[in-house]
Amino acid sequence: MTQYVFGTGQLFATPVGGGAPLKFGALQDVSIDLSADIKELYGQYQFALDTARGKTKVEWKASTGNIDASAFNQVYFGQTVEAGDELLQVFNESGTVPAMTTYTVTVANAASFVMDLGVYFATDGTPLKQVPSMPGPMEYSVSAAGVYTFNVEQASAGMLFNYLYEGANGGTLMVTNQLMGSTPKFQLVASQLYDGKSFTIILYSAVADKLSLPLKQDDYLISELSGSCHADAANRVLKLSTTSISGGGN
Question: Is residue 57 part of a domain?
Answer without folding.
Answer: yes
